[in-house]
Design a protein that fits this description.
Elements: H1 10-32, H2 35-42, H3 46-53, H4 56-76, H5 85-101
Helix pairs in contact: 1-2, 1-4, 3-4
Length: about 100
């Protein structure tokens, strides 16, 4: 008789939760997003979400922090050094808007 074991991926669980939560918060906002829907999307239980983030608001803050980090990384990778100041500001603004649309 063979035993069916579920492979655990603790390193990948937190990022998957953040990805699913980003989608839920983007579509439904803080009030409308459901922790149960996030857990279902990830294939985890709600307790795992609370383990990593303590509460729904903690998860929301983590999503915002991750989005801010991605935004800062994208801005940091822009090479604006060869541009005139007005052109550099324009390129930075375009980059910010592109990130927001994404």
């Amino acid at each position: 008789m063979s035993e069916h074991r579920v492979k655990r991926d603790p390193e990948g669980t937190r990022p998957r939760i953040l990805e699913a939560a980003t989608s839920q918060f983007t579509k439904h906002g803080l009030a409308g997003a459901r922790v149960g829907a996030i857990a279902t999307e990830v294939g985890a239980n709600e307790r795992m979400i609370y383990y990593y983030f303590e509460c729904k608001e903690g998860l929301y803050v983590a999503v915002l922090e991750a989005m801010y980090a991605r935004s800062a990384e994208a801005e940091g990778s822009l090479d604006l050094s060869g541009l005139e100041p007005a052109d550099a500001i324009r390129e930075l603004a375009k980059s910010i808007w592109a990130q927001l649309r994404e």
